[in-house]
Fold Sigma-70 family RNA polymerase sigma factor.
Amino acid sequence: MDDDRLLERMQCRDEAALAQLIDRYAGYVAAIVRRVLGPGAGREEIEEAVSDIFFALWEAAGRIDRDGTLRYYLAAIARNTAKNRLRKLGRTPEIPLDEDTLEGLSGAQDPLADRLQAQALREAIGEMGPPDSEIFIRRYFYFEKVAEIAQRLGMNPKTVQTRLCRGREKLRIILNRRGEPL
């Protein structure tokens, strides 16, 4: 059953639909939470955050915009939930650019295609060089606001916006040069 149909059933308070969405997306959500919380996060902390995220999805089911994808909506909830937990602990997220950073964050349904796409994207972002790669990851994978990125990196928000604009173009050129689909 597709996400739209499951979401429709969930809006009618069908708990079986929620269970199917949890089965489908729990690993994806946990991966995002793990990346935002960092290497110090324990399994129980991650599981608790994942439970909170799916509870928030259940509560918001009637307000979810059908024009977007449920996957991206869950990513936003996961990122915000994990960032709020970090704030409560007085920590800020670290942005590693390693093997696992982009794994599982693409939209592919095929795990091998997902892994290959993540690897190509990781390499292309790595070619952008600092601080562009960090700005790009913070904005597009952790959904941080431009002002937050600017403050964290000691930059002007306009500079961050300019680097994002140029970074998108740079990334497009790198991926095209390699023959990767956009």
User: Anything to note?
Assistant: Residues 96-110 have pLDDT under 50 and may be disordered. Residues 111-178 form a domain with the Arc Repressor Mutant, subunit A fold (CATH 1.10.10.10). The chain has two domains: 3-89, 111-178. Helices lie at 3-11, 15-37, 43-60, 70-89, 111-128, 132-140, 146-153, 157-178.
